[in-house]
TrEMBL record:
<protein>
    <submittedName>
        <fullName>Stage V sporulation protein B</fullName>
    </submittedName>
</protein>
<feature type="transmembrane region" description="Helical">
    <location>
        <begin position="243"/>
        <end position="265"/>
    </location>
</feature>
<feature type="transmembrane region" description="Helical">
    <location>
        <begin position="41"/>
        <end position="64"/>
    </location>
</feature>
<keyword id="KW-0472">Membrane</keyword>
<feature type="transmembrane region" description="Helical">
    <location>
        <begin position="7"/>
        <end position="29"/>
    </location>
</feature>
<feature type="transmembrane region" description="Helical">
    <location>
        <begin position="120"/>
        <end position="138"/>
    </location>
</feature>
<keyword id="KW-1003">Cell membrane</keyword>
<keyword id="KW-1133">Transmembrane helix</keyword>
<feature type="transmembrane region" description="Helical">
    <location>
        <begin position="322"/>
        <end position="341"/>
    </location>
</feature>
<feature type="transmembrane region" description="Helical">
    <location>
        <begin position="150"/>
        <end position="170"/>
    </location>
</feature>
<feature type="transmembrane region" description="Helical">
    <location>
        <begin position="387"/>
        <end position="406"/>
    </location>
</feature>
<dbReference type="InterPro" id="IPR050833">
    <property type="entry name" value="Poly_Biosynth_Transport"/>
</dbReference>
<feature type="transmembrane region" description="Helical">
    <location>
        <begin position="445"/>
        <end position="461"/>
    </location>
</feature>
<dbReference type="InterPro" id="IPR014249">
    <property type="entry name" value="Spore_V_B"/>
</dbReference>
<keyword id="KW-0812">Transmembrane</keyword>
<feature type="transmembrane region" description="Helical">
    <location>
        <begin position="361"/>
        <end position="380"/>
    </location>
</feature>
<feature type="transmembrane region" description="Helical">
    <location>
        <begin position="412"/>
        <end position="433"/>
    </location>
</feature>
């Protein structure tokens, strides 16, 4: 197994664990905070995400790309210089951001139209911003060297610490006011980040000691200015993408709730609907996306290295592998979420109302899974500016759709789902077109036809199950296992059939 697939597998297994932990945490939070508390929690998270994005300055992606290029040229001295320059830049920015964000938050809390309960979780997590920034540098370092084990272990430790904090702390806060329980939920994120930083730091120091010091003296020193130029060429457009997404996520709660109020829905109902959509339906819908994130982390250095070596064969192979892996998990997950949406939301959140939201999201959820590998490919190819510009236009159109549809009583919260689906489809198409334009990528149509044929057969099976009222006598867990087994079994046999046809088609050499 190659380095790329091995790294993706390691990260996927680690992310599977972390996603399971996040599921458990979300269930614990939902039962402790309720719909209104989850609404406040989900409204605070995008703002926190914006702070983290600015603090990290998307240096993990930039470091991953630049270090992979230096590794291709075996320039060890430049590698350490890049890490040092990145560290000083991020630490200075993080400390400045802590001071500015604290002042802004305190000023906003004095505004009468802002619910003071929303400010407490923001103030609680602001001191953790430098920790997150430093951790992001070390994460980018290991990713650039294509060493995925430290990243995977750090994720395991981070989520375990998060779960432990939530489990032990919230049970002692049952009788406290809602705002204090929301603060405790947010502090759990900070506890996980601290544990992750300790592990990354230990791994980095141990790795540098055991790697030897003579290799760093072979190459001439590289100026800090040239290092910053390389980093910012990737970092600034990539940060722009993250900030745009974070700003959109931070503004969306206000736009959505206000649009729903304009449509005639009460404030309490609007908050509950927003909580069910984002905390329940989207959590389930985006759960399989951890594989896409693993692909993202592995693809950026792999694509950068192949492009630096001008190895077009390896470049096209990585793109094919990324698409195949995404279709391998994305198609069956989309089918399952459409046909068994109610059962899934009831199983995990005891919320049958959220099932309708999940069912409407599921037909287009595959495009959201594709976004991570598509963006990773473009970042690796040096087309970060295209990702930035395309994200701007799609986010603007998405906001316009939210305001247009959600404010109408005939659509309501369903208008938000239309906007989410639209943005995922359009952005994926734009990214794919840019990749084809850059590397003249040609998809293997027969491979994708096999994926679609397997999906069509699985859809027929799910439709048959619903007509025979399977739920009266079979557990949903068993049903899901059967559906996935049928999809992968059909895919396997179609692959064998394709292989047999290709052997018949190719004429033997005389």
């Amino acid at each position: 197994m190659g380095t790329f697939l091995k790294g993706t597998l390691i990260l996927s297994l680690a992310m599977l664990y972390t996603k399971v932990v996040e599921f458990v945490v979300s269930i614990l939070l939902a039962r402790s905070l309720g719909s209104e508390g989850m609404g406040f929690y989900m409204m605070a998270l995008p703002v926190i995400g914006l702070l983290i994005t600015i603090a990290a300055l998307e240096f993990p992606t930039a470091l991953s790309k630049v270090l992979a290029e230096e590794e291709a040229h075996q320039n060890d001295r430049a590698r350490m210089q890049i890490v040092k320059v990145s560290f000083f830049v991020i630490m200075g920015l993080s400390l400045l951001l802590v001071a500015v964000s604290a002042v802004i938050t305190l000023l906003l809390l004095k505004w009468k139209n802002i619910d003071i309960r929303l400010g407490y979780p923001l103030l609680a997590l602001i001191p953790v911003v430098p920790v997150i920034g430093t951790s992001s540098i070390l994460k980018g370092y290991f990713s650039g060297l294509q060493k995925m084990k430290p990243i995977a272990i750090a994720q395991l430790l981070e989520k375990t610490a998060h779960l432990s904090f939530i489990f032990y702390v919230l049970q002692y806060m049952k009788d406290l006011p809602l705002e204090y329980r929301v603060v405790a939920a947010v502090l759990g994120l900070g506890a996980g980040e601290l544990v992750s930083l300790f592990f990354f730091s230990a791994s980095f120091l141990l790795g540098e000691r055991t790697s030897g010091k003579t290799a760093a003296d072979k190459a001439a020193p590289v100026s800090s200015r040239s290092i910053l130029k390389k980093l910012f060429q990737v970092s600034l457009p990539t940060t722009g993408v993250r900030i745009l997404n974070a700003l959109t996520a931070a503004v969306n709660p206000i736009l959505i709730t206000q649009s729903l109020l304009f449509a005639g829905i009460t404030a309490s109902v609007a908050t509950k609907q927003y909580g069910m959509l984002t905390a329940f339906a989207m959590t389930i819908g985006y759960f399989p996306g951890f594989i896409g994130y693993s692909l993202y982390v592995s693809l950026v250095p792999s694509i950068s290295e192949a492009r630096s070596k001008q190895d077009d064969q390896a470049l096209h192979q990585r793109i094919h592998q990324a698409f195949h892996i995404t279709l391998l998990y994305g198609i069956p997950c989309s089918i399952v979420m459409y046909f068994f949406a109610d059962e899934l939301t009831v199983l995990f959140y005891h919320s049958p109302q959220a099932g309708q939201f999940l069912m409407l999201l599921s037909p287009f959820i595959l495009f959201h899974y594709l976004l991570s590998p598509l963006q990773a490919i473009l970042f690796g190819l040096g087309r970060a500016r295209d990702v930035f510009s395309q994200t701007i236009w799609v986010n603007i159109l998405s906001i316009l759709l939210i305001v247009s549809f959600a404010s109408q009583s005939t659509f309501g919260i369903h208008g938000v789902i239309i906007a989410v689906n639209f943005s995922g489809v359009l952005l994926s198409i734009l990214h794919y077109h840019t990749i084809v334009e850059e590397v003249r990528f040609k998809p293997k149509l027969m491979d994708y036809f096999i994926f679609l044929a397997s999906g069509a057969f699985t859809i027929g099976l799910c439709e048959l199950m619903h007509k025979t009222h399977y739920e009266d006598h079979i557990s949903i867990i068993i049903v899901l296992a059967v559906v996935f087994a049928v999809y992968y079994g059909t895919l396997f046999f179609l692959r064998l059939f394709q292989s047999g046809l290709s052997r018949l088609w190719v004429k033997p050499k005389l």
